[in-house]
Amino acid sequence: MDNEIQLISDGDGLAVIGNPTDVDRFLTSEGLSSKDLGLQRLKSVAGTGAGAAQAGSEIAANSGRWVQLTQESARLVEKYGLRESSKTGLSTGVVKGQKGQVRGFLQFVKGPRSLLTNPAALAGAARIMTQVAMQQTMDEITDYLATIDEKVDDVLRAQKDAALARMIGVGFVIEEAMTLREKRGRVDEVTWSKVQAVPATIAETQAYALRQLDALARKMELKTKIGDLAEAAREAESGVREWLAVLARCFQLQDAIAVLELDRVLDASPEELHGHRLGLKAARQARLEHISRSTQRLVARMNAAAGAANAKVLLHPAKSPAVVQSSNDVATGVHDFHGRLGITSGRRSSEAKRWADAAAEAKDKALAAGAKGVDAARALGSGTLDRAGSVKGRLSDGIAERTRRRRGDAEG
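The structure assignment produced for this chain is given below.
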């Protein structure tokens, strides 16, 4: 397979497999960053027979890199004409180039390749790609949790709720299982028995966190006085950050369970690997959409509160902008949270960005309106004082005139 590389896309990432030099040259020519795919883990799923031996030999001679599919890297799928299989849902193809030429790669999809045509190896590659994508999200969430003031464990320990308390222990169990997987290269029955019941606890905690976010938003809706609204907005701002951290931790642990589960299925029922992988991806997408809808509603309610505050800015030039500021901070926090979980494509990300931009713009308008309101109040106050002085003068003149007339009548 001299100077040829194999491309596999599962919709979340792109596997680039081939001679290490050719792979590096290809990625450099496309300006893409990547991480090791761990191609050696495919050796155990190549199967048996001559075809499997050829696939195993090819795997041993090559390396694989994983590229996260962003808007830029996704263009490669179209650029190189990868063809999607209705059976596997994967897009595959081969790129061929002249040795030593960075720009010499051309589309080449006619020749059969042992890895791309070996069902077991292809299913194994798809499994690894799914796992790498999930681990990438797990790393993103770790970075996200490190950026907030309170670490998620601190947030969890501060709660007295049983669901959150159990989640701390669940995290320890999952981390232990991930360590065993890393050391042993597989998930055996003993390791899996430790974690197979924990998804229920994670789901319970996730549902609880979503209810808490909804409660914060509903509390905002019930406030009619601007002072109460400003106080509720401040509480929501800090509360939302904490509950988003809990949600992020839930999602991180759910991804870890999925990584372990795929290895367990490979070990116990390899023929079911492909279908199980698709099922896990569908369930993961459903969780993402559920979280996205809930957090969208939260931001919409915060924006509604900001609108209500803007309507009263002339009467409350200090408190109204504070509500808008809190709304803006919540929208920005949700947008960052979405990005860390991978909710970055289609309508959701554009709306999240518009929310933050709109909230920031509303804040600026509120501040400007507040300043005008203060000036108007001052002008109104000055005008009132002037008019009061004028009326007072007229009243004094009138009283003095009537007094003079009464005196004149008395003297006459």
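Interim note for the steering committee: The chain has a mean pLDDT of 74. The chain has two domains: 4-120, 148-370.
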